[in-house]
Amino acid sequence: QGYYTRGGGIGESGDFVTSPEISQIFGELIGIWCISEWIAMGKPKVFQLVELGPGRGTLTDDILRVFNQLASLLSKCDVSIHLVEVSPKLGETQALMLTGGKVQSNPEDKSAYMQGVTKTGIPIFWYRDIQDVPAGYSFYLAHEFFDALPIHKFQRTEKGWREVLVDIDPEVPDQLRFVLSPSSTPATENFIQARRDHVEVCPEAGVIIQRLACRIEKDGGAALVADYGHDGTKTDTFRGFRNHKPHDVLKAPGTADLTADVDFSYLRKMTQGKTATLGPIKQREFLKNMGIDLRLQVLLQNSHDTETREQLLHSYDMLMNPEKMGDCFNFFALLPHQRFPHLDKKHKPELKSPVSPVAGFGELLLK
Ligand code: SAH
Questions:
Q1: Alpha-carbon gap, residue 187 to 158, rounded angstroms
Q2: Which amino acids bring their CB within 6 angstroms of ligand 1?
Q3: Residues 6+ apart with CB under 8 A from 325
Q4: Which atom of ligand 1 is nearest to the CA of 10?
Q5: Cβ contacts of residue 160 below 8 Å, gap of 6+?
Q6: Structural class in CATH, domain 3-150+202-363
Q7: How much is the pTM?
Q8: What's the rounded Cα separation, in Å, for the pair 291 and 184?
Q9: Which of 15, 19, 181, 258 has the fewest CB atoms within 10 Å of its CB?
């Protein structure tokens, strides 16, 4: 009965709107990022594009358009698309957007529960778990994915760490409430690493990052994570949205988007040094480094009506304005250590940062 398994409320008519839904430029620049990394790695003959939690499928759709435009560059490369999606309803929406509905469902014993061919002629597969995606050189994308995964909340008390739990309110019918565990719990024993008084930990995100790091270390590729979040500094970020308005997380469970900021310092830690990490860097800086201004100019020049031009400018402002999505969204990447041959593994962050060889990341914020 989960929120996403029943469809999730992405888009203007729903509960929240995301960057790929706001502007086509967003996905296009991420497509360019993948191509740029693929070239930097010597154009491997095979690559997989893997998206975690693709929502309505818009990001992959915009990336596919870029791949199609660069078809001659990619002509000798065997490209395939792999989507990790738990929601059957959103899986259907993605299939319609990306293949025009030309998909087949697979029997239970197959790892991919659905497969087809994209409108641009590329094989595409759906899975419930990252573990099911075949090994191989891959670009992993996670846009507003990690913030949707469940967290544990903890509070420090005089008696030690306690877990914040959800309980049925004994006094009010049909009402939930937060309580503190009376003693320590398995989660307080295992997940606490902080000196702060309140913390949120998302162990599922840690497990997925570990898997991505292992895959990238072994088979090459990269992971690009974009989400709102912090670098280990925030404490209480768990919140709900319904109809684009804040919503009490305990009210009408399953009907609102529940989310918590991504702790990038935790993700970095969970790579266990298997890969290098870049960022987090603010969305407006990443997109600027990727050439969003130039792309906007081209689209403005090619559009002849005022309405389209206004729409382009408005969506640019939504993505880039520090008061809107420009500052609170961050980009973070996992890359193989071989991508930085001039640095050894023990390299400490530089005092004077050189320019990163990885598109979008500007200064080398390598950790
Ligand atoms: N990336 C999209 C959608 C973000 S919403 C965008 O930016 O527009 C989160 C997405 O993750 C939804 O597609 C949801 O169904 C999916 N999701 C949530 N939990 C998941 C899990 N445990 N495994 C795989 N997908 C999950």
A1: 18
A2: 4, 8, 10, 18, 20-21, 53-55, 59, 84-87, 90, 143-145, 148-149
A3: 19, 22, 283, 318, 319
A4: 8
A5: 184, 188
A6: alpha beta
A7: 0.95
A8: 50
A9: 181
